[in-house]
Amino acid sequence: MGMSTSISKARLAKAQVAKLVADVENVVGVGLTKCGEDYAVKVNMLARKKLDVPATVDGVAVVREVVGAIRKRTKRSA
Q: At residue 67, does pLDDT exceed 50?
């Protein structure tokens, strides 16, 4: 078994992925997530569409998830 991907390595990869998808309308966010013991870059998408992003960036996995539109939360009454 190899070494797990550190959060610092994942942060560097996240910056690269964010640049790759900066102008893609279907992408609503880029973040980090855990995949087992490793960190990975997570690309949040509006809908299931083809996304031209590699499966790994500098050895860090890139995962995609359809999350829909991002909306402001409303306050809930107690």
A: yes
